[in-house]
Amino acid sequence: VLTEAWSAEKDFKVVGSLSSATQRNVEPVGPHFLAHARRKRHQRTFSEDDRI
Amino acid sequence: MSDATNGVAPETAERFAIGISFGNSNSSISHTSPEGKAEVIANEEGDRHIPSVLSYVDAEEYHGTQAKAQLVRNASNTVGYFRDFLGKDFKSIDPTPCHASAHPQLHDSTVAFKIRDTASEELSTVTVSEITTRHLRRLRKSASDFLGKDVNAAVVTVPTNFTDAQRAALTEAAKAAGLDILQFIHEPVAAVLAYDARPESVVKDKLVVVADLGGTRSDVAVVASRGGMYTILATVHDYELGGAQLDQVLIDHFAKEFIKKHKTDPRENARSLAKLKLESELTKKALSLGSNATLSVESLANGVDFSSTVNRTRYELLSGKVFSSFTKLIEESVKKAELDILDIDEVILCGGTSHTPKIARLVQSLFPETTKVLAPSTSPSAINPSDLAARGAAIQASLIEEFEKDDIEQSTHPMVTVTPHLQKAIGVQLISATDEAHAVFKPLLNAETALPARRTAQYAVPKAGGDVLVRVCEGLREIKVTKPEPKEKPAEEANDDEDDSDFDSEEDEEEEIREIVWKTSKPIAEFAIKGVKADGKVEVMVAVSEHLAVQITAREVGGKGGVRGMVEAPKAAENGSA
Asked: From start to end residue, where is composition biased (Basic and acidic residues) (chain B) (predicted)?
């Protein structure tokens, strides 16, 4: 169902980027926040955190 | 601190924490059972919702319900409604709620009460922070007695607009009562947590309106819940709206009835008014449960006993105006968050006044049917609205009880809590070449999601299978308004009866249909997955970093390989957005 003309390297094509983010305050409450804080303080990514 | 103790934690004693909801009218204490369930603790009088009132008779201290009863005979030595005075300038407080009890007074730039709390005839000046300490000491004792352990720490709920000075004053007052406040959490967030921590609830993205309808004030907050993390988008407060206004409706109603019979107004005498007020509150509570309630006061005025009944319909009629103020406040909060009522997935009603069935029904009619209104009369699974804040605090307390104090402070520091949030939703379009125009946008990461974040979802491919083009893009939510089709008016038969037909056509006018539609605003990336089986599914994972770089992986469910790619962060994002 692909258009004939469409092609890209490794079948992946970047066409744009995200709009800027808004800075907001997350509520420091709940298990998911604590996990977020832990990742942020130890500068881990999701997958690194999953492994621990 | 850690230097002096050579690395040993300064608190050598074991920490035992509870959750406290400290309100102007009522306070609650709660803990988490060994099975992990948050429970509100009853004090020795059996009250779970303990009036925040202290009263002194012959140097003896009364607390809670007993103290509240003293408002009739011993009003000048009874202190209530003091939470909002803590850490405040005398000039900035509103003393109205204390009209019928000990009056707040200026004392060394803070607020104090002149009461007789000792055996001597002399009045003593007790500051609001000392009153708070005494109140918290009683709460702590009730919790310690119930749990059989010395409670020495707590997570306390506060309104969202509680200032740093108020927090500091409360921390001090609690310390004097032997309670180490581990963390302040916001009341609306505590309510959301109380619901989300139930084992049956599933973490999902939703927009929640938390309406905290209290005794002397009401607060509404709009909370974005994204992946279990909460962000407050807007708050509104009304310091004159609350259960006290509903009490007043009943006070006036019964007073009028009394005047008709006995020609005296019980509201003109302080003691009669105090009696009527206490009883009217009880009648109001009874009307939340049953459709009829009685009120009886011994010797209301001039030594005359008074007893009467009122039914719920009558009460709801009399309170119509107050009820609509509550719904207006809720509408205002949604507007302030720049949202539409269609965006709201859940409404949590908390605070004592939320027990009123009519309020829940009015709120339900304000929102679309798909919006869940969590209140006892609209949802069988609702938690007692009076318990929510305390329960949320207990859950948070159990989560951080084991942490070092430094750990808690660092985790709640703005360095951690101030986080970029997605401005627009990110979603996925599956496109088949034949009808690109009909490609549907399905949001995957919602707007206001805190970053970093990742989401995975599966999408059904177009029936035929084959090669599929997937486009990740930003989307905008729009409200589509469909005007009702102009009804063909039946050829004006009723011409001679103009008034009637005019009236009819306005009444019958169908409401316009409003719905949410998604518009793609900006494509981010496109990729192809080739050779998908008919009726197959594609799994797409999108991860967005804190700097707005996007990582995408996709594969056919059950298939091998797949596509992965990376979209760089926009260049201006580093410093442009704050």
From this structure: 483-492
